[in-house]
């Protein structure tokens, strides 16, 4: 006769060494942002002072006014362009990648595995190799120098398709899809009513990663929008840092403003990001 032994719940709290290590990692990670804010709120003398200044100054509004009123750098318009590009690319990526991931994971068609292999294979090709060809194509269409040239290449990504395919394959039972088909649901109805509600954590992770990557994109916007008056925020920051004499308090003030939307997004969606990563790991 077997006996059941009761086990006391284990204490999952970390020791003081764990919290000390986390505090050190947090300090190292956050200090560059804090130092950026310190210089953005200080005058030119603070950058050259020794020991370096560690307390924010009172010149933040003055530095911001200089950033937003420069004649050769339209920083406000550049921020608006970055918001437009990042929002459109993120929404498009979520839609197309989840739709393609659903097709690869749950629909049976000829060449499914071959096409998925081709998608994965594109991840091994560096983006820099396609810049020249992409610039020529955008020039033929007449989109160079416009936001369309920045938006179009990011409407769907191979990583997004692969990520959504893996998540849908494990998160949604095939029997559920087949049962909905028996009940008369169309493919789009299955996608809208069954797939999307089940993969919300994955969509949150992909959306955050896509928005941050698009916002921070520099190379391609510089190539196609570098000579225009209204580029994206990253290109505008490079314009602030150009010239024979760089005013770092002005550059870091602009960098801090360009970082605030990402910090707010991560604060608002951080819980969904962790949840999506943990659910993907468990599945």
How does this structure look, described?
It is a multi-pass membrane protein. Residues 79-269 form the ABC transmembrane type-1 domain. It comes from Actinoplanes utahensis. This protein has 283 residues and is an all-alpha fold. The protein has one domain: Orthogonal Bundle (MetI-like fold). 71% of the residues lie in helices and 0% in strands. The chain has helices at residues 16-40, 44-48, 60-69, 75-106, 112-122, 131-141, 147-151, 158-171, 174-182, 187-198, 200-216, 219-225, 233-240, 248-282. It is globular, with a radius of gyration of 24 Å.
Total beta-strand segments = 0
What is the gyration radius calculated from CA atoms?
24 Å
Could you spell the SSE succession in H and E letters?
HHHHHHHHHHHHHH
Helix content: over 70%
Query: Which range does the strand content fall in?
Result: under 5%
Structural class: mainly alpha
Could you report the average pLDDT, rounded to the nearest whole number? 86
Q: Which fold name fills CATH's third level, the topology? A: MetI-like fold
CATH superfamily: MetI-like
Biggest sheet, in brief?
A: none
What CATH architecture do you see? Orthogonal Bundle
Q: What's the end-to-end separation, in Å? A: 36 Å
The number of distinct helices, counting runs of at least 4 residues, comes to 14
Protein name: Sugar ABC transporter permease
Family: Belongs to the binding-protein-dependent transport system permease family.
Organism: Actinoplanes utahensis
Keywords: Cell membrane, Membrane, Transmembrane, Transmembrane helix, Transport
């Amino acid at each position: 006769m077997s006996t059941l032994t009761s086990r006391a719940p284990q204490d999952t709290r970390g020791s003081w060494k764990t919290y000390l290590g986390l505090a050190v990692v947090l300090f190292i990670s956050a200090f560059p942002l804090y130092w950026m804010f310190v210089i953005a709120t200080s005058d030119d003398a603070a950058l050259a002072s020794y020991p370096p200044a560690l307390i924010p100054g009172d010149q933040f509004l003055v530095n911001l006014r200089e950033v937003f009123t420069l004649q050769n750098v339209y920083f406000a318009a550049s921020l608006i362009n970055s918001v437009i590009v990042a929002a459109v690319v993120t929404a498009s990526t979520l839609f197309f990648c989840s739709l393609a991931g659903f097709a690869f994971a749950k629909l049976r068609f000829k060449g499914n595995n071959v096409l998925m292999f081709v998608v994965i294979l594109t991840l091994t090709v560096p983006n820099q190799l396609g810049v020249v060809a992409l610039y020529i194509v955008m020039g033929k269409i007449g989109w160079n120098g416009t936001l369309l040239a920045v938006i179009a290449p990011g409407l769907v990504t191979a990583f997004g398709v692969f990520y959504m395919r893996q998540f849908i394959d494990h998160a949604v039972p095939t029997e559920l899809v087949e049962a909905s088909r028996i009940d008369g649901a169309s493919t789009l109805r299955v996608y809208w009513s069954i797939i999307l509600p089940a993969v919300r954590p994955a969509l949150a992770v992909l959306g955050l990663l896509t928005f941050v990557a698009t916002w921070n994109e520099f190379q391609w916007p510089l190539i196609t929008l570098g000579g225009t008056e209204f580029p994206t925020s990253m290109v505008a920051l490079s314009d602030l840092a150009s010239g024979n004499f760089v005013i770092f308090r002005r550059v870091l003030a602009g960098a801090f403003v360009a970082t605030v939307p990402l910090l707010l997004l991560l604060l608002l969606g951080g819980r969904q990001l962790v949840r999506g990563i943990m659910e993907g790991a468990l599945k």
